[in-house]
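Quick start: what a row looks like.
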Amino acid sequence: MTTRLGLGLPQMRQYSLGTDVPDVARTAELIGYESLWVFERALFPEPATQGLYNVPGLPWPDEYRHVADPLVTLTLAAAATERARLGSSVLVAPLHIPFQLAKSLASLDAASGGRVVAGLGTGWSLDEYAAAGVRPFEDRGQVLDEVIDVCRAVWGPDPVRHDGEVTKIASALVGPKPARPIPIMLGAHGRKALRRLVDRADGWLPVGMGVEQLATQWQELQELAAERGRTEPIRTVLRVNTAYTPKAYDGADRRPFQGSVDQIVEDLVAHAAVGLEEILIDLQITARDAGELKDVAAEVYEKARAAGV
């Protein structure tokens, strides 16, 4: 089975949102990428009040200082493409008002002809939760549950009804409806989050941190699904955040997906062997501009396919 390949869209400071996003999206579709992806980083606290991923002392990377809104980015890409699916890995769902997020995703799906993949997560930044002001950080799991419930209700048949902690819809017509059922995928780790995924979502959005760890997580998720009686397959899209360098990285401390195109492809081959359906390749962090991003994306795609990915 050939692994589907997707590309991360340019959202960072070195790119021009209005021109580079449509340009990269069109080029990626022509190259052969089957999906286009965004992530969400709402702000960059300075000074930092907590470490990256809530790990004490771990610094936030500079590229997080300037990240374009994910839904605006996907809308620009949708208007410039015809076939590629449009996904988020991930939207930090509790930063959004559930009803408005559901309606925005439905509108984007209707406009794009049924190409949206709603990848959701709970996030980890206390500062982002404080700025959004929707619900406290401690309630993030419950808010994600309500976002899923509201999305299913809003995307379903009229009249829409929902009685939740945040969202209350007595009875209403809500349109436009999605062109087809929008898949909900979750970035989840930890037993409780994985149970939510198995019970309530269509798929899983892991991050590539190493082949052994990925294989172990995938096995645990499949076992949990069997344990809880899930019969439908779990869709999978692996996000890989690359650190591209023109020359091969020869340090002993090389991380997965760090280095030259050949090294990135070598890691893609190893991770594809785990058996996930799709790999999202994000090359935007170390590319200097959209031109380099497109060139590297084309070379990675060609060499990955030649290597059997």
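That is the whole record. The mean pLDDT is 96. The two ends are 9 Å apart (CA to CA).
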